[in-house]
Amino acid sequence: MPKKVDHEARRLEISEALWRIASTRGLDGVSLRDVAAEADISLGRLQHYFRTKDEMLLFALRHINTLAERRIRERIEAAVVELSEEPPPRTVLRLCLMGMLPLDEKSRVGNLVGAAYFARAVHDERLRAEAREGMPKLAEFFAGLLRRAVERGEVGADKDPYDEAMLLISLVDGLTAYTLLDVHTPEVALRLLDLHMARLFGE
């Protein structure tokens, strides 16, 4: 058992080295050797944990997503405490969407790793499977929130919850790309998200 824990800890340390590179110079052209140097370990030792760059990217992406989900869950729990009740669907939806945007350094690094992963996944069937499995689950979760909003009279009954969920995800993806490219600031991205949500919720 101790060996397993140590093995996982080393994989996390390597992932953190990858994130540091992403935050300073991106991941385009970064090799396993570069990450090994950043982690201050030999290439051979790194390859003991990750045989390929794709394996390393996938592990790092999953770990970043886990951390993002934890932050979102903590925000929702804080909203429950503040409201003394379960927050309305719109609040939960907004907190989730905010968690997907690069609004601070941690989420920016996470999105940079995600961008590197998706760029490689376009040409890799195995990596694409991750998106094909994960995206419908996320869309269905958002659609469930929107169905509740329709039932509460907060979103028009003419709106298709699943379609609107996919539109929200697509909007956040676009806002993320332009924020990472410094076309607009995180503040503008959040304002545009709120503008779309106001229209969706009939304000």
Please give the structural blueprint.
Blueprint: H1 2-25, H2 32-39, H3 43-49, H4 53-83, H5 89-100, H6 105-121, H7 125-151, H8 161-180, H9 186-200
What does this structure look like?
The chain has 203 residues and is mostly helical. The chain has one domain: Tetracycline Repressor, domain 2, CATH 1.10.357.10. Helices cover 79% and strands 0% of the residues. It contains 9 helices and no strands. Helix 4 packs across helix 6. It is elongated and about 60 Å long.
In CATH, the architecture is Orthogonal Bundle
* Main pleated-sheet profile: none
CATH fold field value: Tetracycline Repressor, domain 2
CATH superfamily: Tetracycline Repressor, domain 2
The SSE string, one letter per element, is: HHHHHHHHH
Distance between the termini: 55 Å
User: DSSP helix count?
Assistant: 9
Number of domains: 1
Q: What is the strand content?
A: under 5%
| Radius of gyration from the alpha-carbon trace, in angstroms | 19 Å
Keywords:
single chain, 203 residues, mainly alpha, Tetracycline Repressor, domain 2, 79% helix, 0% strand, elongated
